[in-house]
Amino acid sequence: MKKLFVLFIIAICIFALSACDTNKPTTPVNNNPVEQTTTGQTENTNNETTPVVDNIVVNEIENLASAKILAETRFVDKETLPEDLKYLANLGESLGLKLDNSAEIYTKSDLEGEDFDELHDYSFFYSRDNKSAKINLSRIDTPLRDCFFNTTQESSRINGTNAVVSSYEDKYFVRFNYNNINFDVETNGLSQEEMVGFVTEIVK
Predict the structure, then answer these.
(1) What would the CATH number be for the domain defined by 59-202?
(2) φ and ψ at 96, to 5 degrees?
């Protein structure tokens, strides 16, 4: 009988200790992991996305000079554009900008020849009142530009894409690579916020 009483007391002690263990803090489990995507957005397992924070560094231009380009411009209808570029025809609508024209820019494959036979750039021009934006893009090289300048090349990040942003008076120049295409964007009369918004529509 005494032996059974001792075993009963031991059983009570074990039960009390196990009850105390349930009060110990536990490490919370993260059921909603987040991973970084290549689109410049944060995506979680619930398929919800939030924009990344832009980091804009503006490189100031002291002197801007015009440049002569040996090229031939051929205007094209937006419906004939390559499929992956057609979305560019509708940019800037939130800013009131409308596409004025789109074009192909040809250079000479033989500098001593007469024919402009190499498609170098596609060009898009948008405007509204005293505001405008221009895109030159190239799959083969740095896009052509009708001006040149020397400035620092500190990099910015716009919607997850690295870019170099420069400014002169009320103009912004932005160069970046997106989907293996080299872009050169020039805006005139747009604020910095509007310029960033316009570029964000490209690197959607």
Answers:
(1) 3.40.1000
(2) 85, 5
CB atoms within 10 A of CB 198: 23
Q: What integer pLDDT is reported at residue 151 of this predicted model? A: 84
**Between residues 23 and 97, the one the model is more confident about:** 97
Question: 86 and 117 in contact (C-beta within 8 Å)?
Answer: no
Q: Phi first, then psi: give them for residue 109, nearest 5 degrees.
A: -70, -25
- Cα distances (Å, whole numbers) of residue 77 to 7, 22, 81, 92, 184: 93, 72, 7, 18, 21
Taking the whole predicted model, whether its pTM rises above 0.70 is answered as yes
Query: Residues 202, 126: contact at Cβ < 8 Å?
Result: no
Q: What is the pLDDT, as a whole number, of residue 152? A: 85
- Long-range (24+ apart) CB contacts under 8 A made by 166-169 are 166/58, 166/59, 166/60, 166/61, 167/58, 167/59, 167/60, 167/61, 167/192, 168/60, 168/61, 168/64
Closest CA to 155 of 175, 170, 139, 182: 175
Here the tokens at position 68 are 């002569």
Assign 201 to helix, strand or coil.
helix
Domain ranges in the chain are: 59-202
Residues 173/37/90/146 CA torsion (nearest 10 deg): 20
> Which residue type is seen at 143?
P
